[in-house]
Amino acid sequence: MSQSREPTRERSIDELYQEDAERADANVFGRKTDIGRRGFLGGAGLAAMSAAVGGAIPFAANMPGGLIPAAFAQSAPPAGAAPSAPAAPKGPQYLNLPGKSDKLVVLGDRPLVAETPEDQLDDDTTPTNKLFVRNNGQTPDEAKDPDKWSFVIDGEVNKKLTLTLGELQSKYKPVTQRMVLECGGNGRSFFTPQARGNQWTNGGAGCPEWTGVRLADVLKTAGLKPSALFSAHYGSDVHLSGDASKPTVSRGVPIKKLMDENNLIVWQINGQPLPNINGGPVRLLVPGWPGSLSSKWLSRISLLDKEHDGPGMTGFSYRVPIKPMVPGDKGDPKNFKILESMPVRSIITSPANGAKLAAGTKEIKLRGAAWAGDYTVREVDVSTDFGATWTKAKLGKPKNKYDWQRWTATVKLPADGYYEIWTRGTDARGVMQPHLAGFWNPQGYGGNAMHRVAVLVG
Ligand SMILES: Nc1nc2c(c(=O)[nH]1)N[C@H]1C(S)=C(S)[C@@H](COP(=O)(O)O)O[C@H]1N2
Ligand SMILES: [Mo]
Question: Which ligand neighbours the alpha carbon of 248 most closely?
């Protein structure tokens, strides 16, 4: 006689949080009392939470309910934590691609999408092998003769231009700038309920040094007609369907943004030829706004007399609500506008999430980076006590516009145990990162919840 029934198994606290955060929260923190006050983390809840995160929680009294502990957001359980139950969600899949670090995490393989975990963004300048990859279509074969790579500038211009890479290099003055490239969906995984698309943490961004010529200089040669109001950018990669007549993605910007002197047509990254996987031999770089504007394998920039309607411009694509919508709702297209500047974001690049430090460690040196789309970052703060108190980080200056700002901070710890280090950035306008990803939208753009890393001391 066979017994097919699964033995009942007690699920670990992290599984509970992953499956149903609200229920887990009620179990751990206790239900709201009839006067509407949330229970506090004590007794059985505290014991269960401590066992799950792997140590005592010195600031347990400040631990907010409803927030999935940072320790559970990582792939592997924190060192010393209770071993994960067999049904734990599968761990990250690492990228295996020549020229790329095997620490990049694959979010999708058709099209290829891979992100850079925050702790891999610890270099002041992002090395090429650590720059994220976001393809929408098929990855093209490597160009045989890069110097002959050509693209056109057409539409509302006085003179249609066709330029090869060789001509670009000989006719225009090259510039080198360190600038952030960031996917519009960066931070999408922090939305609740889950939004459609690649589930980026904060790793859909990087800040390498780019060499190229100013797009504005090239546009001046073509001569813009007064009717040129908007751009349309195209790359030569083929649509996933194989239909060569369909662009994979084609987005554009209003003329004011197009003429920004920081937009470059680039062929080098960190002093080397731009690799095929990141759009070489020639790509566009439109910093500050969603990465999708920065066409890889650049083939054409068209000037239009109205807003572009290519794939990535319409419906809910790269659009965010004007007025907040009910999270999870379908949404009314009339309530949406195009996402322009990316929001402020600060990340901790050291220590890594899940770091285990020696017993008796009384202070931690933190390193990180912050950036804010079109704006500079005014302030970065860090907290070790679930946001009850904050310490100002030492914030560096950008090398040039659209560079990220590196920061450092030292925090003191009162005792051994489990901590979450939180960071939040504030941009030059005074706009600060929210505790949780706000302004929910169906495709999950602009998710910039404060970054948290779990560390275990002792
Ligand atoms: N031709 C082309 N350009 C493209 C894309 C693409 O799929 N095809 N992806 C865009 C998106 S969505 C982003 S975020 C960036 C990613 O650049 P990377 O892969 O070099 O990191 O390229 C943009 N340019
Ligand atoms: Mo993107």
Answer: 1
Centre of ligand 2 to C-alpha 350, Å, is: 25
> What integer pLDDT is reported at residue 86 of this predicted model?
40
Q: For atom 12 of ligand 1, which residue has the closest CA?
A: 292
pLDDT at 74: 53
- The single-letter code of the amino acid at 306 is K
Q: Angle at CA 232, nearest 5°, toward 341 and 170?
A: 95
Q: How far apart are CA 308 and CA 327, in angstroms?
A: 28
- List all residues 6 or more positions away from 164 whose beta carbon is below 8 Å from its beta carbon: 147, 148, 149, 150
Closest by alpha carbon to 154, among 219, 212, 215? 219
Rounded mean pLDDT of the chain? 91
- Closest ligand 1 atom to the C-alpha of 137? 7
Return the ligand number nearest the Cα of 293: 1
Task: Give the distance (Å) from ligand 1 centre to CA of residue 134.
Answer: 5
For the chain, what percent of residues have pLDDT higher than 70? 91
- DSSP labels for 271-312? TEEPPGGGT-S-EEE-TTS-GGGS-SSEEEEEEESS---STT
Whose tokens are 């797009």? That residue is 215
- pLDDT, tens digit (0-9, with 9 covering 90-100), for 395-452: 999 999 999 999 999 999 999 999 999 999 999 999 999 998 989 999 999 999 999 9
Token readout for 371 is: 């950036």
Average pLDDT in the 208-218 region? 98
pLDDT above 90 (res 167): yes
Specify whether the CB–CB gap between 307 and 232 falls below 8 A. no
What atom in ligand 1 is closest to the CA of residue 133?
A: 19
Ligand with smallest separation from the Cα of 251: 1
The 8-class DSSP code of residue 387 comes to T
Query: Which residue CA neighbors atom 16 of ligand 1 most closely?
Result: 134
Counting from 1 in the atom list of ligand 1, the atom nearest the Cα of 312 is 12
Q: Answer whether 0.70 is exceeded by the pTM.
A: yes
Q: Which residues line ligand 1 (CB under 6 A)?
A: 131-137, 181, 183, 235, 237, 248-249, 278-279, 291-292, 294-297
Lowest mean pLDDT among 46-55, 97-106, 134-143: 46-55
Q: Name the closest-CA residue to atom 10, ligand 1.
A: 292
For residue range 294-320, what is the model confidence (pLDDT) as tens digits?
A: 999 999 999 999 999 999 999 999 999
How far apart CA 393 and CA 8 sit, in angstroms, is 48
Q: Give the mutation target among 128, 129, 135, 300 for probing the ligand 1 site: most ligand atoms within 8 A of CB.
A: 135
